[in-house]
Amino acid sequence: MGTLSVFLDVPLVKKADIPLDYYGEDPHPQKVLLGHAGCQTDAGEAWIPPVVQRILLQISQDPTLNHEYLPELGIYEYTRAATELAIGKESRALLENRAGGVHTIGGTGALWIGAEFLCRWYKPRFSTPTALYIAKPQLDSLGCIFQVAGFTDIRPYHYWKPVSLTLKTLWGHHKLANAPTGSIVFLHAPEEIGLKPKEWEAVAATMEKKQLFPFFNIESQGLASGNLDRDAWALQHFVGQGFELLCAQSFSRTFGLYDELAGNLIVVTKNNETLIRIQSQLGRQICTTWWCPSSLGARVIGTVLNSPALLYEWKLSLRMVVERIMLIREKLKEKLRILGTPGSWEHLTAQSGMCSFIGLQSSQVEFLAKHKHIYLFENQQINICSINSKNLDYVAQSIHEAVLATSLGDYNLDLEGVDRS
Amino acid sequence: MGTLSVFLDVPLVKKADIPLDYYGEDPHPQKVLLGHAGCQTDAGEAWIPPVVQRILLQISQDPTLNHEYLPELGIYEYTRAATELAIGKESRALLENRAGGVHTIGGTGALWIGAEFLCRWYKPRFSTPTALYIAKPQLDSLGCIFQVAGFTDIRPYHYWKPVSLTLKTLWGHHKLANAPTGSIVFLHAPEEIGLKPKEWEAVAATMEKKQLFPFFNIESQGLASGNLDRDAWALQHFVGQGFELLCAQSFSRTFGLYDELAGNLIVVTKNNETLIRIQSQLGRQICTTWWCPSSLGARVIGTVLNSPALLYEWKLSLRMVVERIMLIREKLKEKLRILGTPGSWEHLTAQSGMCSFIGLQSSQVEFLAKHKHIYLFENQQINICSINSKNLDYVAQSIHEAVLATSLGDYNLDLEGVDRS
Questions:
Q1: For an interface test with A, which of B4, B5, B47, B237 has the most A Cβ atoms less than 10 Å from its Cβ?
Q2: Could you tell me if B17 lies within 8 Å of chain A, comparing CB atoms?
Q3: ipTM for the complex shown
Q4: What residues of chain A lie within 8 A of the CB of B61, using their CB?
Q5: What H or E segment, with its residue span, contains residue B247?
Q6: A293, B1, B178, B298 - which has most CB atoms within 10 Å?
Q7: A261 to chain B nearest CA, in Å?
Q8: Are the CB atoms for B347 and B163 separated by under 8 Å?
Q9: Which letter, b or e, does each residue of B316-326 get, where b requires 16 or more Cβ atoms within 10 Å of its Cβ?
Q10: How far apart are CA A158 and CA A172, in angstroms?
Q11: Which domains are present in chain A?
Q12: What is the average pLDDT across B178-203?
């Protein structure tokens, strides 16, 4: 047997989530990670709605449940209820049997299966290859899914002006208005973007005119405004306008079940016959990728969504989280105002939901990591839930010092290796 | 909004598992499905080891467990124990840190991630494109995974002579001996194929000489002989010989947890540094396909494999299933002997494990479905566990009639649509 590996050329993948590693290795007692993937309680623990824990226990004690393979499209009661939650129970698309869900391995699984499907079957006959528009910073985190699926012409657009952190609908709108006819537009987490219905209407009108195909991503419906329908307004508007679309839906954040990866790929099309053809193709893709979805997460979510009493309880839990998030946003803004930190911090309360663009420069992010043991991701998105009553003062004071140090020029930034593009 | 769908060209995928549908729709009280995916009890219910049900309950009541995302490579305690189970705790490859596992969404997920990895990174520099050998009937069921992953030169080989159902090692061996240097050989379920150690040694020697790359698939380790190490003899021999290899490992059958999809992709390579590079690439693939694996199945399996007492109990359960399977094989053979059914039925007891080539012609399979309400798959593989004390006599009698009817020529076979290739 030869001693040389046939895998000599395989390169090492550098890990992207370096702040997480730095945070893990930092022994400082006051260290803070502002980039948790999910909801945290004020005690700094992973949040899970009480109803979810109860149903988990109930399912484990159910003697009628078996553990046989699910159908490749998953649990129908779950995908049906999930689809209704997103596009509205009374949606004409549902009543006309031309909207349906496909149970996937989490939101990423829905994105992957959807991206692969579009790459293979979306043929608008206008542009070859099809251009795909994806917002920054989702381009960094999710762009690779579309790239691996086979998209070669991936273009960024912006919801937010990088400096003032105000909405730049008009700019993004302009970009879409000039997109090649038939391009695909990936619309991320509409519930958190902060566009108003009027602005979404304008975006939809442009997209209709240019025959652009919408691929929505709904990661935390209910965690922006606390109202499930309000958070899905944009998606429901597009469906109401008669668009064909895909929507990757994830429940990890709203149910606190990150490790069970319950996702749903919603398909809305022109008629029932097309829906069936599309679902059959998605089923085939699933068979070759993971055979069928895993069940526990979908069983819990399906149970909650299909019971009016449990649904009510879950909605209450969501509302409490949203109130906590708004309170933290207000408190942080107020602390920075009292400290007299230079700059406007209005965006903290103008945005809503768990994730937020904090609005610091790269040098300030680096200052926080190096001098204050506070870690956030390069893309400037922080998880508001990572801030709690124990670390709020420290975080505000540290941001204040970071802004002062860098704006006064007494912080000698080591630019080596810092990407300024 | 136009009324024409952009998905007009998407074809409907015809479902492959038609016997399952026919069985489901058949109202006949004596109907039998000989193609269950998993282990069945004698009462015709899905089998699950008692220890698994206990641990499921225990996990649901554990207050220290959280539901945060797992790392992309999954639960280390699970992949480590699973890898040890397959290649042996004392394997030099493990002691030298050049063998490791990657937690996947079931066995199919392991196959998919492995196939995609090989397609991208396996460059033996001998043959372009790399030929992939895959045994019939796995070609029908799993070939599409490799095809979608990008393999274009997929070739079949046979373990069994189609007519006599005796092992045809020499023939398969001859085929491999003539394979292009550097080809990949997919070795399915070595525990069920029935090759003897001497025959595996010869296959390994040929593969070493031709520098063929082995990709093992272990679906039911322990369910062939009842002895875990004996069932993995071939894999352990290849590892011991210094081969670099991949192995997709699945626990659905042996733990009865089909709906939780716990898989493991075992990588054995030349040194630790190569293993780390390969695992980093597999991690990247996982991030774009399902983000991270789901946890419940792996938590249960990891708990059992890492506890000597629970492991002992699980092994006992496996042994009981194997004894039941051997008993059914013997009883069925004996019934056919007493009935005087033409042909040799020795292969029923010469093979071992849950799956078996039954050795009927297509016309006989069709007779069983049409006249006896007994359904099996086109590929002639039946699940021995689908036979129980209630249906054994009926199945034997029906097989007898099917063989007689077709060999006497009084069964007028409708050949239309039947694939005779």
A1: B5
A2: no
A3: 0.92
A4: 57, 60
A5: strand B245-250
A6: A293
A7: 6
A8: no
A9: ebbeebbebbb
A10: 6
A11: 18-47+321-407 (3.90.1150.10), 69-306 (3.40.640.10)
A12: 84
